[in-house]
Design brief:
The chain is built from 25 helices and 30 strands. It is an alpha/beta fold. The strands form 6 sheets. It has an 8-stranded parallel beta barrel with strand order 13-14-15-16-17-18-21-22. A 7-stranded antiparallel sheet has the order 12-23-24-25-30-27-28, covered by helices on one side. It has a 4-stranded antiparallel sheet with strand order 1-8-3-6. Helix 7 crosses helix 8 and helix 21 runs parallel beside helix 22. The protein starts with a helix and ends with a strand.
Length: about 775
C-alpha cells in the first residue's frame, strides 16, 4: 500500500496483487478491480464474471464479492471509503455501472491509462511524486464518475435546507450540534424538522450525525496515538459509553480492537518492496505500448474497399412538432417551414388531438383539426398522429371507452371523407404507452390499443397503426413485453423513446437516473434489434435529456452528440425523431433570454443551434451512397467522383456535469464540463482517380455555427435589439475552408485540427474536364 493513500484517507486502500484471492462480504467501500494480466473468476453476489487481461470492474458498496485469480495474474485493487468519495466528489452515496466483462467499450481506456500512471508512481514512490499521486487519484475518481456514475434525478435536486444542514454538520461535526439548533437554522419547528430530515435522507438526524463523526473517528484511530477517550471527544462523542456502544453497532468490534487491527504502524508499504511486482508491471507496460490501437488519430480508407449502397436517410424521418394545437400558431408554422426547407422531413408528428379545445365538447367539430392537418400537408409533411400521449395532464384513454370509441370512429370517418383512403394509407397512428415496465399499466394499454387498432382499420383499412413510443429503461423486459404481454396486439410498426436514463426501484419507489454511458444509444438500439425483427422499428423520440431547461441543448456539445449518435444508429432503425423541432413547442421559465436550454433544433427566435447544424450536415448526404463508418466518421460518395466525410470530436462531459441539476446549469460554467485538448485528424483516401479536386471543409466549432458563443459576445444580455438578432443570425454559420488539390498517386491525405465537440463535413469533388 502506498503511504500517500494512507495520508489521504486511512480507510481506503490501494494495492497491486499477484495471484491472490479476495473475499469481501457486504463491503462498506467502493472497490475498483483492474486485472492487468492473466485471468480471474469474480463473483459479485450471485453473478459470476470471468475476467481477462485489461478487464476493469467496480464493486459497489454493500455488494459481496469473491475474486479468485489464476496463477501469475496481476491485479490493481483500489478500495475507496465513503470519506474519500465524499471529499473527492461531494457525494455521500454513489453507485457505478462499470464492468468491462459485461459491457466492453473504448471508454475504459481512460481509466486504464490513469491507473497505469498511479501504479507507476506507487512502485517508484518518493517524496517528489506524492503530490502527483494525489492528483492522479482524484483524476481517476473524476473520470470514473464522468463515465460510469449512476445518479438519481431526485438526488440531483436535493432540498436546499437539507444541503445547508449537511454542510454545517460536515464543518462542525466535532461540536455539540443539536437538532433544535439545526431546526432553527432552516426556520423550522424541531418536531417537523426531525420528520423532514428523515424523509429527505432516509435516516434520522441523530444517526446521520453519528455516521459522519464515525468516519473521522476511524481516521484518528488509525493515524494517531491519541487515547480512545480523546478520539471520541475530539470527534463530537462527549459520552464515552455511548460512543463505544455506537462504534460496536457499526463495526462489530470495539475501538481498541479496530485500532489494533488497522493501525498504520502495523501496516507496511507493500507495493514498492516487491521486485516481482515491478517486473510484472514493466512487462505489462511494454505489451501495452505495442498495442497498435492505442490513441490513433487518423482514418485510412480505400474507396474500392466495398460496394456502395444507398444511405439510409432515417435522420429526417420524423419531425417532432408537439401538441396539435400549436400548429395553429403562425410563428410555429414559420418555424416548421424553416425546418422543412432545410431538413426535408417525411413525417410531422403531433399529439393531443382529441381535446375539447380542438374538437369541441362533442369531439366532432373538425374545423381546427383540418386547419392543422392541412398545414402539415402544405409543408410536405405526412401526418403522424400520437394518441394517448400525456399533454397538460391529460391523455385520450381517460375518456370513457364507449365515448372514446365513438369519437375515434367519427374522427376516422371524417379523415376518409376529407382526404381519401389512398392518401391516408401513408399516414401513421401511434398509440403511446406511458409506463411499459408496469404490468398493470401495460394491461390497460393492451385493451386501449386493441380498441384503437380495430376502429382505425375498420374505417381506414391501409393506415399504419403501431406503438407505443415505449420508453426504454433498464427495467423494461423487452422479450416478455412483446412475446407475452403484447402478443395479442397487432403492430404495423414499433416505436420507442430513447433518453439516457435508467429506471431503478429504491426503497420501493421508482427513480429515473441519468446514465453516464457515452454509447448508450448504440447499445440500446442493438438490444431492440435483437427483439424487434418482423416489423419496422422507429425511434420516435431521442435526445440527451428530457429537461426543457438544460443549457447543454444550446451548446456545441449537442451538435457533436447528434452527429455521434446518428452515425452510430442511423442505419440500424427504420426512422428517427429528434426531440424536438423548435423551442416554441415548450414553455420556458427563462422569459427574455435569447437561449433557454429548450429541446428544439432552433431557438424561439428561429436561430440555428449546433444540433440544427449537425442535422444540416447529415442532410447533405441525401441521395448519396454509403461507403464506410466507424465511431468517429461516416464516408459517402455520389455517382460522380465526389466524396463526403462527416466527422466529429464528441467529448463526453466530465463528472461535474452529472453532479449538477440539469435545470440549474449556468452559461459561464458549461466549458468546465469538457476536456480542452485538441488533436490532429488525418484522413487518407486511397484508390481514387487522379486529377484536380476541389476540397471544402465545413466546420461547426467555437465561434462558428456556435449560437451560444455568439450570445457570449453580447455578455448573455437579455432583450437584444432586432439588429442584434439579425447580426447573430448572419454570423451564426459553420466556417468554410476551400483548397484546390491535385491527386497524382490515387491517394489523398486530408489533415485538420479538431477541437472538443467540433463537427465537420469534408467535400472532395473532382473537376470535370471539357
Amino acid at each position: 500500500m502506498s503511504k500517500v493513500i494512507r495520508y489521504l484517507d486511512a480507510q481506503s486502500d490501494i494495492r497491486l496483487i499477484q495471484g491472490e484471492e479476495l473475499l469481501h462480504e457486504n463491503v462498506t467501500t467502493t472497490d475498483i478491480l483492474f486485472l492487468l494480466e492473466g485471468g480471474a473468476e469474480l463473483k459479485i453476489d450471485d453473478q459470476v464474471f470471468m475476467m481477462g487481461s485489461n478487464d476493469i470492474v467496480v464493486v459497489n458498496k454493500y455488494e459481496s464479492y469473491q475474486f479468485k485469480a489464476n496463477r501469475g495474474s496481476l491485479l490493481f485493487y483500489f478500495s475507496i471509503s465513503d470519506l474519500l468519495m465524499s471529499q473527492a466528489l461531494e457525494l455521500e452515496q454513489v453507485s457505478f455501472n462499470c464492468n468491462s466483462v459485461v459491457d466492453p467499450n473504448k471508454e475504459y481506456d481512460i481509466l486504464r491509462n490513469i491507473i497505469v500512471d498511479i501504479i507507476e508512481l506507487f512502485l517508484f514512490e518518493n517524496e517528489r511524486t506524492n503530490f502527483i499521486q494525489l492528483s492522479k487519484i482524484y483524476q481517476l475518481l473524476n473520470e470514473l464518475t464522468s463515465l460510469f456514475l449512476e445518479t438519481t434525478i431526485d438526488s440531483m435536486r436535493p432540498d436546499e435546507r437539507i444541503q445547508q444542514v449537511k454542510s454545517v454538520i460536515r464543518k462542525r461535526y466535532y461540536e455539540n450540534i443539536s437538532l433544535n439548533e439545526m431546526a432553527d437554522l432552516v426556520h423550522m419547528d424541531s418536531a417537523y424538522f426531525s420528520k423532514f430530515f428523515k424523509k429527505n435522507t432516509g435516516v434520522n438526524f441523530k444517526d446521520y450525525l453519528s455516521s459522519i463523526r464515525l468516519q473521522y473517528v476511524l481516521r484518528d484511530l488509525i493515524e494517531s496515538d491519541k487515547a480512545i477517550t480523546r478520539v471520541a471527544v475530539d470527534n463530537g462523542f462527549f459520552n464515552v459509553n455511548g460512543f463505544n456502544k455506537k462504534f460496536k453497532e457499526h463495526y462489530h468490534q470495539t475501538p481498541s480492537e479496530y485500532r489494533n487491527q488497522h493501525s498504520i504502524s502495523k501496516q507496511e508499504t507493500i507495493i514498492n518492496t516487491n521486485e516481482n511486482l515491478k517486473l510484472s508491471f514493466e512487462k505489462y507496460k511494454e505489451t501495452r505500448m505495442q498495442d497498435p490501437h492505442q490513441k490513433k488519430s487518423f482514418l485510412e480508407f480505400s474507396i474500392n474497399k466495398q460496394e456502395p449502397t444507398p444511405i439510409k436517410e432515417t435522420w429526417r424521418s420524423i419531425l417532432n412538432i408537439g401538441e396539435a394545437k400549436i400548429v395553429r400558431n403562425s410563428k410555429v408554422r414559420e418555424h416548421l417551414s424553416i425546418l422543412q426547407q432545410n431538413l426535408h422531413f417525411k413525417y410531422g408528428r403531433i399529439w393531443a388531438v382529441f381535446t375539447e379545445r380542438l374538437l369541441g365538447e362533442s369531439l366532432q367539430e373538425f374545423d381546427m383539426l383540418d386547419e392543422i392537418l392541412d398545414s402539415l400537408l402544405d409543408l410536405g409533411l405526412i401526418p403522424w398522429i400520437g394518441i394517448n400521449k400525456i399533454a397538460e395532464n391529460f391523455k385520450e384513454s381517460e375518456y370513457d371507452l364507449v365515448a372514446w370509441s365513438e369519437a375515434l370512429k367519427n374522427f376516422c370517418l371524417h379523415l376518409v371523407n376529407r382526404y381519401g383512403q389512398q392518401q391516408l394509407s401513408t399516414w401513421k397512428i401511434e398509440i403511446i404507452s406511458s409506463s411499459p415496465e408496469d404490468s398493470e399499466s401495460i394491461s390497460r394499454y393492451v385493451d386501449f390499443y386493441q380498441i384503437c387498432y380495430r376502429i382505425c382499420k375498420e374505417w381506414i383499412k391501409d393506415i399504419s397503426v403501431g406503438g407505443g413510443s415505449f420508453v426504454v429503461t433498464n427495467s423494461l423486459q423487452l422479450e416478455s413485453l412483446f412475446n407475452e404481454e403484447l402478443v395479442n396486439c397487432n403492430f404495423d410498426f414499433y416505436s420507442f423513446a430513447l433518453f439516457p436514463y435508467s429506471n431503478r426501484v429504491v426503497k420501493e419507489e421508482r427513480h429515473f437516473q441519468r446514465v453516464t454511458e457515452p454509447n448508450f444509444f448504440q447499445k440500446q438500439v442493438a438490444i431492440l434489434n435483437n427483439v424487434i425483427r418482423d416489423k419496422p422499428l422507429y425511434i420516435s423520440e431521442w435526445s440527451n435529456t428530457v429537461s426543457r431547461g438544460n443549457l447543454m441543448n444550446d451548446s456545441l456539445y449537442k451538435g457533436a452528440f447528434v452527429v455521434k449518435n446518428l452515425i452510430d444508429i442511423h442505419d440500424q432503425v427504420d426512422g428517427l425523431g429528434y426531440w424536438l423541432g423548435t423551442d416554441l413547442a415548450q414553455k420556458s421559465l427563462k422569459g427574455q433570454e435569447l437561449l433557454t436550454g429548450g429541446n428544439g433544433l432552433i431557438s424561439k427566435n428561429a436561430l440555428f443551434k449546433p444540433s440544427m447544424n449537425a442535422m444540416k450536415f447529415f442532410d447533405q448526404l441525401r441521395g448519396l451512397k454509403f461507403l464506410y463508418k466507424d465511431e468517429r466518421a461516416l464516408i459517402c460518395r455520389s455517382d460522380e467522383h465526389e466524396y463526403f466525410i462527416l466527422g466529429h470530436k464528441y467529448t463526453h462531459p466530465n463528472s461535474m456535469y452529472f453532479l449538477k441539476d440539469e435545470a440549474q446549469l449556468q452559461w459561464t460554467e458549461l466549458g468546465r464540463f469538457f476536456e480542452e485538448t485538441e488533436y490532429e485528424e488525418e484522413i487518407v483516401l486511397s484508390n481514387i482517380p487522379n486529377g484536380e479536386y476541389e476540397l471544402r471543409i465545413f466546420s461547426c466549432l467555437k465561434g462558428h455555427g456556435d449560437i451560444l458563443g455568439q450570445w457570449e459576445n453580447f455578455n448573455y444580455a437579455k432583450n437584444l435589439r432586432v439588429s442584434d438578432l439579425t447580426h447573430i443570425q448572419r454570423v451564426n454559420t459553420p466556417i468554410l475552408k476551400y483548397e484546390e488539390i491535385k491527386v497524382t498517386k490515387n491517394q489523398v491525405t486530408i489533415r485538420k485540427k479538431v477541437t472538443p465537440n467540433e463537427i465537420y463535413e469534408i467535400n472532395l469533388k473532382r473537376r470535370q474536364k471539357s
